[in-house]
Amino acid sequence: MKEKQKPSADSVAPSSLPKDVLAVAQRYPETDWRKFPQFEQSFASSEAMADMMAKIEKTCRNLEQFRQSGTAREKSRAQCAMRAYGRTLELVRKLDDLRAKQATSK
Predict the structure, then answer these.
(1) Could you give the CA distance from residue 67 to residue 88 in angstroms, rounded to a whole number?
(2) Which residues make Cβ contacts (< 8 Å) with residue 40, sequence separation at least 6?
(3) Which residues touch 36 (CB under 8 Å, ≥6 apart)?
(4) 82-91 burial code (b ≥16 CB/10 A, e <16)
(5) What secondary structure letter does DSSP report for 45?
(6) Dihedral, CA of residue 26, residue 85, residue 93 and residue 61, to nearest 10
(7) What is the dihedral of CA 9, 11, 17, 20, to 10 degrees?
């Protein structure tokens, strides 16, 4: 039986990665094989994705309350967190699109 090959930093064209990312990958080569079952489960199905999106949206609504009525520090932190969640939502949507394309190509 053929052993499954582990992914590595070499599986991506090095020229497409920032130098700092390459430096970290070289310092910690063992991290590329680790498993993250809870993370993987979150992307396993459309239902799991919808649940995750609903949680993120609920969190954003709560952050919006802080952004509207919090102290200056709370407003700033809420804005930063909302920006991060917005980027996360974009990534999640892209991953969901890729998962759907992969499912239809099989």
Answers:
(1) 19
(2) none
(3) none
(4) beebeeeeee
(5) S
(6) 160
(7) 10
Specify the 3-state DSSP secondary structure of 101.
helix
pLDDT at position 84: 94
- The beta-carbon contacts of 30-35 under 8 Å, at least 24 apart in sequence, are 32/6, 32/7, 32/8, 33/6, 33/7
Domain residue extents for the chain: 45-106
76: three-class secondary structure by DSSP: helix
| pLDDT per residue as tens digits for the range 39-97 | 778 777 778 888 888 998 899 999 999 999 999 999 999 999 999 999 988 888 888 78
Predicted confidence (pLDDT) per residue in 8-39, tens digit: 444 555 667 788 877 877 777 666 566 777 77
Higher model confidence: residue 56 or residue 6? 56
